[in-house]
Design brief:
This is VWCE protein. By secondary structure, the protein is mainly β. It has one helix and 26 strands.
């Protein structure tokens, strides 16, 4: 190929051909690779022989020292070391599994639980006789029991109640109010009681839930000489007349307070 070679020279041609010059002739053979590992990686670019720096396992390249589990192995652990893959699998005893962890790795049958004269399968959940507040589970031949968790209650202790057959306490309904208690004067009114808090134009009623509802009365009747009667909200225009602090009925006559010789009469118009 236009390149001079010394007698006995060796070189590699493309295509992984190993060539040598002997007696003026070129002899070529395929490159012979010595691979001292069980799971070599494919030859890197530009090289002819696979490499043992790493492992090729089930079509997946693994780095040197990598620990992994095969895709179809139950609890099997493999190690890539110097191009070799070593795997370890748990020893699975025949029959029942001695521990719950082996039940996940082996095809053995998990141990059943014998508890208070009854047999329960692995993973079974049950309650104790007469105690529905305790839940038990069978795990690999052993029974673990725990109390049923109860929710947090937002009522005070004296309002909590544990009913027959219940596991958790519940909040009692607060007692219905017997009436309305007013803190300002200490008076308690029964439900439905109507009263005036001091202003005759305002009426209050005690509601069934213990609250007080008040409403004011608006006076719409007007007259030039209204009469205000104590304890009455609106002025009365038909009751009579007021004169010098006194109330006189319609058509009533009375002497004048300024002149005893004058006589007055109340006329409602």
């Amino acid at each position: 190929r236009g390149i001079p070679r010394e007698p006995g020279a060796r070189w590699t041609e493309p295509g992984c051909q190993s060539c040598t010059c002997q007696g003026g002739r070129v002899l070529c053979d395929a490159v012979s690779c010595s691979v001292p590992c069980s799971h070599p990686l494919p030859a890197p670019a530009g090289a002819c022989c696979p490499t043992c720096t790493g492992c090729l396992h089930e079509g997946v390249a693994r780095a040197e020292g990598d620990v992994f589990s095969p895709s179809d192995g139950n609890c099997t652990v493999c190690l890539c070391l110097a191009g070799n893959v070593s795997c370890l699998s748990p020893e699975c005893p025949p029959g029942s599994c001695p521990s719950p962890s082996l039940a996940d790795c082996c095809s053995c049958t998990p141990e059943k639980c014998n508890f208070r004269g009854r047999t329960y399968a692995h993973g079974a959940r049950f309650s104790l006789d007469g105690d529905d507040c305790t839940t038990c589970v069978c795990q690999g031949g052993e029974v673990e029991c725990s109390f049923t968790p109860c929710p947090m209650l937002d009522c005070p202790q004296h309002q909590r109640h544990l009913g027959p057959g219940q596991c958790c306490s519940t909040c009692r309904d607060p007692p219905a109010p017997a009436g309305c208690f007013l803190d300002d004067n200490g008076v308690e009114f029964p439900v439905g009681q109507i009263w005036s808090p001091g202003d005759p134009c305002e009426l209050c009623i005690c509601q069934a839930d213990g609250s007080v509802s008040c409403q004011r009365t608006d006076c719409v009747e007007t007259c030039p000489y209204p009469i205000r009667i104590p304890g009455q909200c609106c002025p009365d225009c038909s009751a009579g007349c007021t004169y010098m602090g006194r109330i006189f009925s319609n058509n009533e006559t009375f002497p004048s307070a300024l002149d005893p010789c004058l006589s007055c009469i109340c006329l409602v118009r």
